[in-house]
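Researcher: Next entry: Pyrokinin-1 receptor (Araneus ventricosus).
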Amino acid sequence: MEEEYSIDLYNYTDYNFTHCLNVTMEECRLGPQRDPLSTIIPMTLVYSLILMTGITGNVCTCIVIARNRYMHTATNYYLFSLAISDLLLLILGLPQELYQLWYKYPYIFGEIFCILRGLASEMSTNASILTITAFTVERYVAICHPFRAQTMSHLPRAVKTILCIWIIAALCALPTALQLGIRYEIDDNGQTLWKTALCDIINPFPHVFEISTGLFFVLPIILISVLYVFIGIRLRQASVDSQNESNDNFNHLSEAKMNSRKAVVKMLSK
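Model: Predicted structure:
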């Protein structure tokens, strides 16, 4: 076993040594600077299409809601918030992703943008999830508790809810963003390879991703699923009640017709 292991280790080291002789030190450490064109070009087209259609659609949504006063409802305010979060993610995220398709390294945007991009991405994702959850709660109250909804569904309350959503989303995104920074590779002599700059996690916090996943993925999905089950039960019950009411009205109508016919028969028989 020892002999077999030493042969494998020798072959692996020999391969790395041969590979690094033919490329730069940066490529030796991080691999090719870009993927094959057969992969990059289709991905560039897809990303560009998503960027253009996403920006156009969300900007149009914001303009339509903002310029038409009759659309200033609680539901449309939640849609406006979703459009803003999508725009934030598209504008700060996709252009950088497009650049990095062609140049994986070095990262040229600087450490501040690296952190801000991570903050904006995490914040917009959190805000979208919280907005969808809040909107689902609104639908649940409107359908299952209509009388309470008449006193709760006001625009100022929706605006306050959306502001709270964005504040919570930003605060919860900070731990994830503060982990980011510019990472460099070090050569065998201890020298920094400046051309290997990458926007990466350099200050990891324990269990940040697990907590974020639980708060902004698992719990919202469970809550939304439960609320939609209650909504479905309420709608089903309303449908059954409506059907029973229709049957009762039909029976009353049939009974009235029969009574009227009996009265006519009695009059004719006299």
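Model: Note for the record: Residues 32-238 form a domain with the Rhopdopsin 7-helix transmembrane proteins fold (CATH 1.20.1070.10).
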